[in-house]
Specification:
The protein is mainly alpha-helical. The chain has five helices and two strands; from the N terminus they run ααββααα. It has one domain. Strand 1 and strand 2 form a beta hairpin. This is HK97 gp10 family phage protein.
Length: 153
């Protein structure tokens, strides 16, 4: 049985973590873009932009939700993205990051104000493409050769 070089294994894990973080950063960038601007719903007095309609990402009102979207390393060789940087309280009406306060609001139907945008983001083809493109770029940079990730059409 072959022996595993601990230093080599640590280096590989570090490289995989970089690749995962690049993918999460690519996804976060597209999600921030999708959370920018107004929606196609009603214009409520006191809000600067039209609100979102059902099945839309939340419309930008203060920019706080958009600005909370970030990527960060997670467990070994993994990364995550979403409302990580000080998500605003109103994010609770849209998605939960503090399970105690926000879970019930997350599961509200869209016609009652629920906007589970992270669920939508997990199935969004634009976000998938951005993450895969970033993974390919970072892996290619690290390996010094072009890397292609298998994709579904």
């Amino acid at each position: 049985m072959a022996k595993i070089n601990p230093a080599g294994l640590a280096k590989l894990r570090g490289a995989l973590g970089q690749v995962a973080l690049a993918g999460a950063e690519g996804a976060a960038e597209v999600l921030r873009d999708k959370l920018s601007g107004e929606g196609s719903g009603r214009q409520y007095s006191g809000l600067p932009n039209r609100s979102s309609s059902e099945r839309e990402y939340p419309a930008e009102q203060s920019g706080a939700l958009r600005d909370s979207i970030a990527a960060e390393p997670a467990e070994e060789a993994r990364a995550r993205f979403g409302p990580i940087k000080s998500p605003p309280v109103e994010a609770g009406y849209l998605h939960f990051s503090n399970a105690q306060e926000m879970a019930l609001l997350h599961f509200r139907p869209p016609d009652m104000g629920g906007r589970p945008f992270m669920d939508d983001a997990l199935h969004d083809r634009d976000i998938h493409k951005a993450a895969l493109d970033a993974v390919e770029r970072e892996a290619s940079k690290l390996l010094g050769a072009r890397v292609r990730v298998g994709r579904r059409s």
